[in-house]
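WARN no homologs supplied; continuing
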Amino acid sequence: MSTNSPLRSRASLAMLPLAGLLTVLGLILRGPLGNPSINPSGFAQSAASANFGTSWIIILLGSVARLYSFMILFGLLGLTRAGKLVFWAMLLSIVSEALFISLTGILVFTVPVAAQLYLQGDAHMLNVLMAGFFSGPVASVLYPAGLIGTLGSILFSIAIWRSNLPMWAGVLYGLTTPLLAFAPAFSYGLELLGGLLLLVSSTWLATAAWRQTIRETSSRTGQSSMISST
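OK structure emitted
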């Protein structure tokens, strides 16, 4: 791919670590994701706090950055021998992330209102939260979306392993989606680990791609100088 492509520009490559950074910041601010069926009062107090909405907005901004990062990875890897694999990795990852954004976006604006009503004495709101979001149609879509995203991240991992980018960065990247998608149900630590792996692997890949771009640019400049001097 041409080094002049916008996909290889500094700003575009910055989207890779930015997605990881926003995800980690959002998870730290949000804290453990409580279960309203186990501790309804604790969950309601957490969801009604200012941090809940703010943290989820940051997480969703990270997801938007991830959508763009999938296209960045396709631009970096699409012309390698794993080109077809990368296309499917990008497609599956975009579908998964788009489902996550559309569904959890509802939670950002609905759950805090329902939690405040519950704290004001409307116990029916707990049933609304459980039936509508945590065990209802939203959950029935989020988990398949997580499986789709996991497959996409694994395909990206394989493509990175076959490319000239750092192989182990690809391994770390392949672990991010399954941890972020499924760990929240049982372990905040593993969920946070998924965010940290996303930040580390994305930064590693962006740095390696940027250095490769500099080397290619220097090589082309040197060749041009040689041609002009002859």
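The chain has one domain: 8-212.
OK
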